[in-house]
Design brief:
Order of helices and strands: HH
Strand content: under 5%
Shape: elongated
Number of helices: 2
Structural class: mainly alpha
Number of domains: 2
Length: about 120
């Protein structure tokens, strides 16, 4: 029975160490939570700034596109013959490019799969 006082002392020491560890864990949890909140606040402020800047630039780009579209439509109204020629030429060029690409792609296929 001589070991009982020593065992009781060891038990009290372990309980004190466990209580100290719990206190340390609570302090660490609080510190991590505070730092996480600060990081979140910093990131959200940065994101808000980037969103504001992107929104401003998008409005500027939309304004430029409207201005360019207006200028193109005015030029087409003032020169309808030129506009028709340019659009027709672009259409014919696109058609010819499509035919060339289609022919190049179908050259790899067997002749039995062609529609003509």
């Amino acid at each position: 029975m001589a070991d009982t006082p020593n065992t009781d002392q060891n038990r009290r020491d372990l309980e004190k160490q466990i209580a100290d560890l719990r206190a340390d864990m609570a302090a660490l949890t609080k510190t991590v939570s505070e730092r996480g909140g600060a990081v979140y606040d910093d990131l959200s402020a940065g994101a808000e700034g980037m969103y504001t800047e992107a929104s401003r630039q998008a409005r500027g780009a939309a304004k430029q596109v409207r201005n360019q579209a207006y200028l193109v439509s005015e030029a087409a109204r003032e020169n309808p013959g030129t506009a028709a020629t340019v659009l027709s030429s672009a259409g014919i060029l696109g058609f010819l490019i499509g035919l060339a690409v289609g022919h190049a792609l179908s050259a790899n296929e067997q002749p039995s799969r062609r529609w003509y």
